[in-house]
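User: Can you model how S-adenosylmethionine sits in this protein?
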Amino acid sequence: MKQCIENPNEVDWASYWRERLEGKKNKDWDKAAPGFFKRTRKEDYNSALFDMLILDEDDTVLDVGCGEGSITVPLSKKVKKVIGLDSSTKMIEYLEKRAKDEGAVNIETILKPIEEIKYEEIGDVDVVVCSRSLNAIMPIEEVLEELDKIANKYVFITIFGPENKKIERDFDRELNKQTEDFPDYDYFFNILFNMGIYANIQRFDLNNYREYDSIEEAMDNGKFRLDLYSDEEKELLKDYLERILTYDNETKKYYNVKDKADWIMVWWKK
Ligand SMILES: C[S@@+](CC[C@H](N)C(=O)[O-])C[C@H]1O[C@@H](n2cnc3c(N)ncnc32)[C@H](O)[C@@H]1O
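Assistant: Here's the modeled complex, given as structure tokens:
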């Protein structure tokens, strides 16, 4: 039956967001840290992100869900100071090592869940960046409200695009299994709209597809939720990847051109 909505602006998008996240098993970011550290070095995501950020050399930036620093450290070279916040000890360890190796001395770190960010604690910064870290946050309105208060100039957020899990979704379809998925970016835009924040939306045009040294590395690509597959399903995943990946004799790598990231930039000016 077609549901009739009198005023679409009164739809409570935040409750749909929470519903989509209800009961999801959070990723173990400590465990994911080494693989993430290795992979981010090869991506064209970073240059797409930096092309969009509006930064000044005197700015202070809050990097929310900073991870292992693949964004934080390059950011620190463009601005006066970066505060990196993350709840994963391992990620922060990688970040601090990376900062030390690159001689970045203007980075401060805060070990804390995003859900606990408060304007009263952080205070004012010029720019807030949340790169790939807000998809699974439940109290999304509360967090966005704090981030909006903290930023004096701009807020830049990237969240999953609809095609981020293309090959993963195809495999789950073969298993008749629901892909571990997140609310779409239209939810996010509408939650902000309901809050009176009228954001800009840009879908990144990323070209780099992933390359792997082995089928095992492809299985552990960070997007297949291996923790949610049985041993039998893992064997089927191996067969699937052997079918869909091509081996390049020159580069000695496995690849599939559809195995690309899809990210949406959501940003607004204060
Ligand atoms: C995909 S990584 C992104 C890292 C980095 N921002 C980037 O784009 O390369 C997601 C990061 O967000 C952090 N994260 C996820 N949920 C979090 C939460 N609720 N509180 C704090 N950090 C969180 C993870 O620990 C991880 O480091």
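A couple of observations from the model: The pocket of S-adenosylmethionine is lined by residues 29, 40, 65-67, 70-71, 86-88, 91, 113-115, 131-133, 136-137 (CB under 6 Å). Residues 106 and 206 are 30 Å apart (CA to CA).
User: Helpful, thanks.
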